[in-house]
Amino acid sequence: MTILDFPFMQRALLAALLVGMTAPAVGVYLVQRRQAFMGDGIGHVALTGVGLGFLLSTSPVLTAVLTASVGAVLIELIRERNRVSGDVALSVLFYGGIAGGVMLINLAPEGSNANLQSYLFGSLTSVSPEDVKIITILAVAVLAVTLGLRRALFTVCQDEDFARVTGLPVRTLNLLLAVTAAVTVTVAMRVVGLLLVSALMVVPVAVAQQLSRTFAMTAAISIVVGVLVSVSGTTLTYYVDAPPGATIVLLAIALFVVVGVLATPLNRRRARRAEAAAAEADQPRVDDVHVDAGVPDAGTMATRT
Predict the structure, then answer these.
(1) Backbone angles phi, psi at 168, to 5 degrees
(2) How far is residue 267 CA from its own chain's centroid?
């Protein structure tokens, strides 16, 4: 029997494929605005939503989406209004999310440490058909936002002041990006876990940045890398008894190291070529010097006339 003959592996591979696309699609914007660890913070808050789902005997994914979205909005408002002392407020929010999640899961009738572990570190084999439906819907929504609004989101992430001058709704786009990141975290928590989801949002982007110099190409390569490591890691866990989340993240880090080693000489040659071209452009040409020397000045021309 092959890996696709098992329904649970079919669901696992589909979930890994969707997460591999969505996580880097959002992560490229977070890296652009230097918020690479935002996914980690949202993951802490989403744990409270997971515990709330167990306590209310409903889907933990849906309650995690709602809780993480509220937390993401709070994170963005704190970042916008209180740039100096906002780190303390964010720390309280993140740690409170973890503590609240652990407490709610322990209070839930069906809650246990095993349930907590599956959401913290991922559990592909326990992905249900209902989870796949929810993950698919959320992944489509995330891709629609990140790809459909890529120009506006890039402008806001690059320079908020310039975006305001051009008339873009900066606050609305910032909040939309924050909520999209929250949805991505909840989509990925069943695959890599809440504690490792930030790595899948950042590491593929770091790999792509070593191979591309444009934002559009970086986004495209990061999505390809995310899909590659997610599907490969999930397939590997079928043959090797290893946790899927850790396997996927380690594959991504290994690819980052390999690409870094291979890309370093190429980047050095590019830098030397750019320096040589700039130096050649700064030097005056000999023909220009002779032409300028042979042209009489304005005073001489006036005297002759």
Answers:
(1) -75, 145
(2) 24
Closest CA to 29 of 190, 164, 173, 171: 173
CB 128 within 8 A of CB 61: no
- For the segment 262-266, the average pLDDT, to the nearest whole number, is 75
CA dihedral for 29, 34, 40, 46, sign (positive or negative): negative
Binning pLDDT at 50, 70 and 90, where does residue 101 land? Answer: confident
Give me the phi and psi of 205, to 5 degrees please. Answer: -65, -40
Question: Taking phi first (over 0 means left), then psi (-120 to 50 degrees means alpha), and beta for anything else, what does residue 127 get?
Answer: beta
Q: What is the pLDDT of residues 13-57, one digit of tens each?
A: 888 899 899 999 999 998 888 877 788 888 888 888 888 888 888
| CA 136 and chain centroid, separation | 18
> Model's pTM, two decimal places?
0.79
Exposure on the CB side of residue 124, measured as CA atoms within 13 A? 32
- DSSP class of 285: P
**Residue 155 burial by Cβ neighbours in a 10 Å radius (0-12, 13-18, 19+):** middle
Identify which of 3, 6, 12 has the alpha carbon closest to the alpha carbon of residue 131.
12
For residue 15, give both structure tokens.
């979930």
